[in-house]
From TrEMBL, chain A:
Keywords: 4Fe-4S, Coiled coil, Heme, Iron, Iron-sulfur, Metal-binding, Oxidoreductase. Residues 52-109, 338-397 form the Nitrite/Sulfite reductase ferredoxin-like domain. Residues 119-272, 411-544 form the Nitrite/sulphite reductase 4Fe-4S domain. One of its GO terms (molecular function) is heme binding. Residues 424-451 form a coiled coil. Gene3D superfamilies: 3.90.480.20, Sulfite Reductase Hemoprotein, domain 1 (3.30.413.10). The keyword Metal-binding applies. Pfam families: NIR_SIR, NIR_SIR_ferr. The keyword Thylakoid does not apply. This is Sulfite reductase.
Automatic annotation (TrEMBL), chain B:
This is Oxidoreductase. It comes from the Bacteria. It comes from Zavarzinia aquatilis. Pfam families: DUF934. InterPro entries: UCP030820 (IPR008318).
């Protein structure tokens, strides 16, 4: 993992001091709320329905047990004992007091964390593959590049008042677990014929009210040009992106309206002029990569008899392994997903005790590392097969062993009307009902891989556009309604879901999902055909018929 | 309104100071004052370019946030001051325009921020090459003191020429 040097620490400490001054001026009335807003947003502080909300960055989703303990401490000391892991590798606290926020940020700074640029019209927290560095078949660990981007984008003088927020995601794998095609800039680490590392650049993806899949703008940007090319992309956007209408201000609209070719030509011209300005010395790349060198793995056999025996004897453990344990690139190790989708708990929520528990487990059994995913779960990236059973038992004791990763009850869901002042409808309660309706594990297995994603309004914080089944809360004459979308995907085969038709009232939306599932089960070509594959084969029509014609 | 100059703020650690504004902003339909340094809009500059550059007094140009300096690139060596308008602090085009003036066109005249100039935006403005600020009479000069000290180091190269963190790391 990356560790701050004196410069990184100084920057974060100075930011805390600056924010303390800003909060002080706000409390004294020297700053209006309108003037304070962009400043607090750039430190992750939102004003929500009931209170302030603080968003803390977990850059590219990697954190140490020590950092997780601090997140628990903050939940306990300044909040109501829990936090919410979001779809952007951040954690949100729902109840901090404004006067406490400088202290919270100061506490975070002691473990090299912050809320910098987790909101506002700036370059946001860079996100990545939660399996980075441990997935088999990866070109290269993307996190050193994420850290390089994190530093370059921090307090960027030119790009802090962009037309709109700007999100960058980086992956090093063919299989996209970072949804790069739904980001303002998506980057895939690639290798060219000469064996050199470089970057495939995608631009103009995003969700919100106009979901658009990113377009490929460059096949190969050499390492040394990474930041100059990104600068050129941003400079053109900062100058030409629309500022007349907040809903048309994202780069996706600029690229869409102008056309990729024209945008790309402007970027190339700017790049040609400014290339070499942002120096990225090889020594700096090497310095950062050294922090991400693989940990000291033991030489282990590829199988473990203890592990096999436990799987044979214990049904619960077997179920956990089936969904939550994934192949690791090193023999004898596994990647363990920790589901934050237990029944009755808002997706992505974890209590302070759970954070402490998972931090302890990571310290003892996962080589001191944890990850958070954009699907609102946690990951223990380095668990020995021999330790899996113990880890499972300890997770179970902490209420963290839900065996449902990738299944229908592993729902992504935004806070919705329970917290958010932009919401049209509740989302947490619908997620809860869905989990209850599909609680039976055998039934979940029968349905197979299925991603339900739900947002309480068109802003799409819950990624509903790219859910295999997407649910969107809308307001119809002052009443909550839910629209269904089918066939979306946020992975390498990215697609935007199609709306089925008229929405459903709260008491019928879960039934509608059940109808969709029933239709899929009756249409699929054998058990191996996933919902998404089946949908892509048969299209919307049979689902539409089942949903609306029977009425 | 007062004018705060800041040119040497980074270079020798001096604090910003309030200075006399030697420039007259001339409306598009007003007479040009004889022998005085004037600032005109881009529209007027376009309409009366030859007359303006032929005057025997310094010439300044005021650009709206949607008017890129590239549109006057060929005339920048005849211009002594570019005033960049920030109609609202959220409109960040002026930052890119200031960077372009300094880096792309090598403009070494005065770059002035006018409009919605606020305390917390000043550090970024300085780093993008803006060296004077038109602010309200009650605008606290403490903002400029803070701008000089708030961040000791920075990651990105900027127009101040101070070494970046990477340069400090690797000599
Ligand atoms: C109360 C808190 C929140 C507010 C006010 C809020 C506001 C917004 C708004 C206005 C947008 C649309 C931006 C645009 O299209 O330009 C948006 C998008 C988004 N937000 Fe939130 N959000 C909140 C909480 C969350 C949470 C909890 C998550 C994660 C679970 C999240 C993740 C996202 C994502 C992934 C997008 C889509 C990005 C895209 O359009 O490409 N937000 N949010
Ligand atoms: S999708 Fe809408 S309701 Fe949900 S968190 Fe985002 S802004 Fe709020």
């Amino acid at each position: 993992m990356y560790r701050y040097d004196e410069f990184d620490q100084q920057a974060v400490d100075e930011r805390v001091a600056q924010f303390r001054g800003q909060v002080g001026r706000r409390l004294k009335g020297e700053l209006t709320e309108d003037q304070f807003k962009p400043l607090r947003l750039m430190n992750g502080l939102y004003l929500q329905l009931h209170a302030y909300m603080l968003r803390v960055a977990i850059p590219y989703g990697t954190l140490s047990p020590r950092q997780m303990h601090m997140l628990a401490h903050i939940a306990r000391k300044y909040d109501k004992g829990y936090g919410h892991f979001t779809t952007r590798q951040n954690i949100q606290y729902n109840w901090p007091r404004l006067v406490d926020t400088p202290d919270i940020l100061a506490d975070l700074a002691t473990v090299e964390m912050h809320g910098i640029q987790t909101s506002g019209n700036c370059i946001r927290n860079v996100t990545s593959d939660p399996f980075a560095g441990v997935a088999a078949g990866e070109v290269e660990d993307p996190r050193p590049w994420c850290e390089i981007i994190r530093q370059w984008s921090t307090f960027h003088p030119e790009f802090s008042y962009l037309p709109r927020k700007f999100k960058i995601a980086v992956t090093g794998s063919e299989h996209d677990r970072a949804a790069i095609k739904l980001h303002d800039i998506g980057i895939r680490v690639v290798r060219n014929a000469e064996g050199e590392t470089g970057f495939e650049f995608w631009v103009g993806g995003g969700m919100g009210r106009t979901p658009i899949i990113a377009k490929k703008i460059k096949d190969f940007v050499p390492k040394a040009d990474l930041l100059d090319y990104a600068t050129a992309c941003l400079r053109v956007y900062n100058e030409l992106g629309r500022r007349d209408n907040i809903y048309k201000a994202r780069i996706k609209i600029l690229v869409h309206e102008m056309g990729l070719e024209k945008y790309s030509a402007l970027v190339d011209a700017e790049f040609a002029r400014s290339r070499g300005t942002v120096k990225l010395p090889d020594a700096e790349i090497a310095r950062i990569q050294a922090y991400f060198a693989p940990p000291a793995y033991e030489a282990l056999p590829a199988t473990s008899t203890g592990f096999e025996a436990h799987k044979f004897e214990d049904k619960g453990f077997r179920a956990f392994v089936r969904t939550n344990v994934h192949a690791h690139k090193v023999p004898g190790y596994a990647i363990v997903s920790v589901s934050l989708k237990a029944p009755g708990i808002a997706p992505g929520d974890a209590s302070a005790d759970q954070m402490d528990a998972v931090a302890d487990i990571a310290e003892r059994y996962s080589l001191d590392e944890l990850r958070v995913t954009h699907e609102q779960n946690l990951v223990l990236p380095n668990v020995k097969l021999d330790d899996l059973y113990t880890v499972w038992q300890q997770l179970s004791a902490a209420g963290l062993a839900s065996a449902n990763i990738g299944l229908i009850s592993d729902i992504i869901c935004c806070p919705g009307l329970d917290y958010c002042d932009l919401a049209n409808a509740r989302s947490i309660s619908i997620a809860d009902e869905l989990q209850q309706r599909f609680a039976d594990l055998e039934r979940q297995y029968a349905i197979g891989n299925l991603k339900i994603k739900m947002s309480g309004c068109i802003n799409a914080c819950g990624h509903h556009h790219v859910g295999h089944i997407g649910i969107l809360g809308v307001d119809k004459h002052g009443k909550e309604f839910y629209q269904l979308q089918l066939g979306g995907s946020g992975a390498e085969d990215a697609s935007i879901g199609q709306v089925t038709g008229t929405g459903f009232p709260p008491e019928r939306i879960v039934g509608a999902v059940e109808t969709v599932i029933g239709t899929y089960l009756s249409l699929r070509h054998g058990d191996a055909e996933t919902f998404l594959d089946c949908y892509r084969r048969v299209g919307l029509a049979p689902f539409k018929a089942a949903l609306y014609e029977a009425r | 309104m007062k004018l705060v100059k800041n040119a040497s703020l980074i270079a020798d650690g001096r604090k910003a100071s309030v200075v006399e504004n030697d420039w007259t902003l001339v409306d598009d339909d007003a007479e040009l004052p004889e022998g005085k340094a004037v600032v005109v809009s881009l529209a007027r500059f376009r309409a009366e370019r030859d007359k303006l550059v032929g005057r025997n007094a310094p010439l300044g140009l005021r650009l709206k946030s949607n008017e890129a300096p590239a549109s006057v690139a060929d005339d920048l060596d005849r211009i002594a001051l570019v005033a960049l308008e920030f109609p609202i602090f959220r409109d960040g085009r002026g930052y890119s325009h200031a960077v372009q003036l300094r880096q792309r066109f090598g403009f070494d005249g005065e770059v002035r921020a006018v409009g919605d100039v606020l305390w917390d935006q000043i550090p970024h403005m300085i780093r993008c090459g803006i060296d004077s600020f038109e602010v309200g009479d009650d605008f606290p000069l403490a903002a400029f003191d803070e701008a000089a000290t708030v961040f000791t180091r920075h990651y990105q190269p900027d127009t101040t020429g101070r070494p970046t963190i990477n340069e400090l790391r690797h000599g």
